[in-house]
Amino acid sequence: MASLYNQIPSVSAVFAFYSSFSAITVLFRRIMDDFVPKRFRDYVALKVEDFFSYYFRFRSSVTFVIEERWEYVDNQTFRAAEVYLPTRLARLSTGKLVVGSSSLKNPTNHLKLGIPINTVIIDEFEGIHLKWTLHSSETKFYAYEKRCFYLTCKKEFREQIMTDYFTYLAKSAENIMGHRENLKIYTYNQERYQWQPANFEHHTTFETLAIEPHLKKTLIDDLESFSKGKDYFKSVGRAWKRGYLLYGPPGTGKSSMVAAIANHMKYHIYDLQLQSVKDDAELRKILTSTKNRSILLIEDIDFGSDASRKRQTNDKEKDGEPQKDKKKFEVGVSLSGLLNFVDGLWSSCGEERIIIFTTNHKEKLDPALLRPGRMDIHILMDYCTPFVFKKLMAMYLKIDDHVLFDPIEKLVFEVSVTPAEVAQQLMASKNADIALKGLLESLETKKMRKEEDTRVEGEGDIEDPETK
Q1: Given this model, what pLDDT does residue 162 score?
Q2: CB 418 within 8 A of CB 252
Q3: Which H or E run contains 358?
Q4: Which phi and psi (to 5°) does residue 251 adopt?
Q5: Mean pLDDT across the stretch 56-82?
Q6: 313-371 pLDDT, tens per residue?
Q7: DSSP alpha helices (H): ranges in 71-165?
Q8: Which of 49, 153, 261, 354 has the fewest CB atoms within 10 Å around its CB?
Q9: What is residue 357's three-state secondary structure?
């Protein structure tokens, strides 16, 4: 007991140590003030404060990690946060903001706020204090960005966040997407293994689209029924999707029809070039990374002849020489690989999606693509009709009638002219007389060529007496 008492330092020793420590502290502070910049001192102090606050807060808080990908497909909770959080950027805890504009005409009126990396975004739900942070890093083996959100709150609110807040997050994002104005068109970047967006500013709507009234009504009614059909599709055990085939000659408005559908539904467009996809595995990865409430566009599809040609080439190479290099015998995307996403098991990965195929030659498509359930509606985009011509005339020349309308209407019935050709002639001049006269002359020339071709074909069918 006496030895323990003897080990306790005296009061004078404690004061001596305190005095020495204080002197060293004052000296160190003066050295820091004289030689270390204030910004650096503030930065170190902030980091020390963050470290200790994080350490003591860790025991009483919980953090939800929301990764961008989940079970091979896009994490819809991540997408919901990505849509919802820009509405909370006014509550940023720091002065860092990501701003941008894609409008070349008036960029200041179209400034948008983006989600900064590693910056705390504050939210509040039913009195619960929430902190969001977006983290980003590049993967080790692939040159694509891996992102995730951190959501932190007190542990006592964990169950409420799981049951109520995430539901609120999903509904808020759905409501925002339903009223979004800026649409995107995506193209797939194979080097970075991700879809890359660009602003979609095609202004064609069903009001400006030159198509027959019955076709427009049928299509709008079908789209409206589809958008409200979540419960119906679930009740019949079908994936919530719709497939359209747009077919017809070039220049008949297939691309404009896609734009009108996108603008009507407020859906983003994913433009996929099948020729650039390596194989079925890559196709699945590409398609499952598309978002809900979107359009998958596959233009100029001609799988019947193309797939057949690839299979024949592959068979010849296998018969001709041994298989030394596997890459040499890759045949790209198979028809079954595409159909498995259109209406197979993989079609259930996502919901509220529209798939649109376009072709100039419907007769060349593989019959398997045309079966019911794969392309629900086939839409013929045909040559110009009198109604379509009058619609174009009203849009481009701002007139409803003209003395040249009757002769032009007659020629429209006799020759095959596309809406694109008519529009090109109507845009030649703002003067209606000049524009319509040019269109009339163009149609007359087409008629003369058609009659000449018919005459030549008729002469070719006449049997030559010397061949008997």
Answers
A1: 93
A2: yes
A3: strand 353-359
A4: 85, 10
A5: 81
A6: 444 444 455 444 433 334 577 778 788 777 766 666 777 889 999 999 888 888 888 87
A7: 76-84, 158-160
A8: 49
A9: strand
Instruction: Sketch the domain layout of the chain as residue ranges.
Output: 61-179, 194-380, 386-455
Length, in residues, of the chain: 468
Contact indicator for 248, 254 with CB cutoff of 8 Å: yes
Q: What is the residue type of 376?
A: D
CA distances from 46 to 54, 116, 414 (A): 12, 19, 80
**Residue of 409, 401, 466 lying closest to 443 (CA atoms):** 409
Which residue do the tokens 């596959």 mark? 298
Region of 392 (left: φ > 0; alpha: ψ -120 to 50; beta: rest) is alpha
Instruction: Compute how many other C-beta atoms are within 10 angstroms of the C-beta atom of residue 116.
Output: 16
- Between CA 200 and CA 202 the distance in angstroms is 6
Up-side HSE of residue 309: CA atoms within 13 Å toward CB? 6
CATH 3.30.470.20 is the classification of domain 194-380: no
Contacts of 244 (CB under 8 A, 6+ apart): 261, 354, 355, 356, 357, 375, 376, 377, 378, 379
Beta carbons of 128 and 157 less than 8 angstroms apart = yes
Contact by Cβ (8 Å): 270, 297: yes
What count of other Cβ atoms lies within 10 Å of the Cβ of residue 435?
21
Query: In angstroms, rounded to a whole number, what is the distance separating the alpha carbons of residues 196 and 350?
Result: 19
Q: Which of 349, 392, 33, 74 is nearest to 204 (CA)?
A: 392
